[in-house]
Amino acid sequence: MSAEKRTHPLTRGGDAPDRAPRPRVLVLRALGLGDLLTAVPALRALRRGLPGHEVVLAAPERLADAAEATGLVDRLLPASALARAVPAELAWDGPAPDVAVDLHGNGPPSHLLLQRLRPARLFAYAHPSTPGIAGPSWRPDEHERHRWCRLLDWYGIPADPRELWIPPPTAASPAPGAVVVHPGADAAARRWPRERFAAVAQALHRSGHE
Hints:
Layout: H1 3-6, E1 8-9, E2 24-28, H2 33-38, H3 40-49, E3 54-59, H4 64-70, E4 75-78, E5 99-102, H5 108-115, E6 121-123, H6 144-154, H7 194-206
Parallel strand pairs: 2-3, 2-5, 3-4, 5-6
Antiparallel strand pairs: 1-4
Helix pairs in contact: 3-6
């Protein structure tokens, strides 16, 4: 099965049948919705810095609509693992990516996963267990937006962590003017207690918000 058949097509689409395949940049970010949104500045920088490339995002299939809404992803390659682990493999069997970008973490599991695809270039943070990757040093206390933009800056692709905007939706809102409360998180350590979410919702309701 080709890579095109295994990927989830988004609105930007793939190559026309009568055109040569575009070079591809594969971005590994197989995490949750919040993780996708914090990667928007980096995705925007890749789109701008690698013109003509097809951007393929390796992420959970449930994020296909959100990835499409960013306007920055051409295809979604379904990839996921329990909690925040690195996927065991990627269902990619087409030509090797022109560029592979590790926006998933910092360590051998994600590095080796992308290296097995034999990309022409691999953008990732340096780690002593993968000495062949001459990337920048990892900072454990760095904000995610700044972390991934700094990675791309190091590889010569200017990235601005403030570029978080995404296009407004074209469809009408199912609840115009409502306040949306999004409880929970993938990681238990970042999951706020349910009673606190309930208190926020009650306070919003008392203030006249729907």
